[in-house]
Structures are given as C-alpha cells and as structure tokens.
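P.,

For your records, the input lines for the assembly:
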Amino acid sequence: DTEVTQTPKHLVMGMTNKKSLKCEQHMGHRAMYWYKQKAKKPPELMFVYSYEKLSINESVPSRFSPECPNSSLLNLHLHALQPEDSALYLCASSKIGQNTGELFFGEGSRLTVL
Amino acid sequence: GQSLEQPSEVTAVEGAIVQINCTYQTSGFYGLSWYQQHDGGAPTFLSYNALDGLEETGRFSSFLSRSDSYGYLLLQELQMKDSASYFCAVGMNTGFQKLVFGTGTRLLVSP
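Structure tokens returned:
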C-alpha cells in the first residue's frame, strides 16, 4: 500500500466554522507533512511531524492547528480561517533516515473559505 | 532563504525531447528532487540527485551541478500524458525530507 489518503476531498467553510482535514498512510512512514498549495504555485511547507512529534512549524498562523494522534494519522484543525486561506492542502509522508528526496503525497483537500 | 527558479511554461510535440531547467540560490542542501503534478492531482516523485551528475530513470533523466547552482529534468519520447506541471525541490534536512519547491514549469505536449 503506497497511498496517502486525505479526507475530505473538498471542503467549504465559513470564517467562523471549525473543521478538520484528515490524512492517513499505512506505509510505516514516521515523518508526515502538511503543505499548502495555491493555484499555479508550488507547494509550501506548513508543518512536519517526525515520530509523532512536531518538528517544524513554518510560522503558520494559529488558526491552523496540526495534530498527529499516531504514526498513521495526521490531522489539520481549522478555525476562524480567512478567505485567503482557500487553497489545496496536501498531506505527505516519508521515511526517516534516508535522504531520498521522496515524499508520498495525497491527492489533497481543496478548501474554500467564504 | 532558498530560491529555485524555473521557466513558467515549456511547449513541445509528441516524441520530442524537452529539458526543464532549475537554477537555485541556496546552500547546504542535501539533494535535488523532481516532481510531476497533473491538474487536480498529487505531486508525484520522479527523480533525485544527491550527487552531481546524471541520473536516468526510464524516459526521465535528471542532472545536478552544484558548482553551477543548476539542475535540469530531461524528458524523452514525450507523450501527451506528460503534459503537467514539474517542480524541482531541494532537500534541506537530514532525517526527514524537508523540501523547498521551485516555482514550477507547466509542460504542454501537443500532437
């Protein structure tokens, strides 16, 4: 199984809503990532978890709250978002300890904030 | 910070060879990766150069020259399905893969 599964695929929310994005992988990868991608732009790193602990937060606003409940799951909790947060949110995973340059990405969750 | 520049768009015909360049201003990176992303799809890994030189993977080859701060992806025997966006990315960390992506190149393959 070489899949990273993200749900939901599409999400529309208002600025006062609370929602969560979910990501799951069963490849035994111990590093998991959240990237944000705007249209016609490259993915931008938001968070990195290694061994279920937050290793990198790229100065992301606190209205985005990541969570890694176990080695297979990664969540991104969303609260009080702004319209400019509308984007494709990509989850990825990788092995730790091997510099292969390879991330396994999910298909993403396309978020629209009204 | 890191900066990786790519041409915004490249066009080619089926069966041709195309080269997508990546020039960077960064240091201390561990390798250069290439990813393909079709519209609405996930980025998928194509190739990785840890060392200078050419890496070949089927129809795709990738090259890195650290002394020239330059790399490229070479696609041979182009097919319509190769129409996609292509991103170079540098790996900034050992252990896990902290990747910083280039600006991206949209490849359009015509019949």
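Two observations worth noting. The interface with chain A takes residues 30-33, 41-45, 48-50, 87, 89, 91, 94-104, 106 of chain B (CB under 8 Å). Chain B has a mean pLDDT of 94.

Regards
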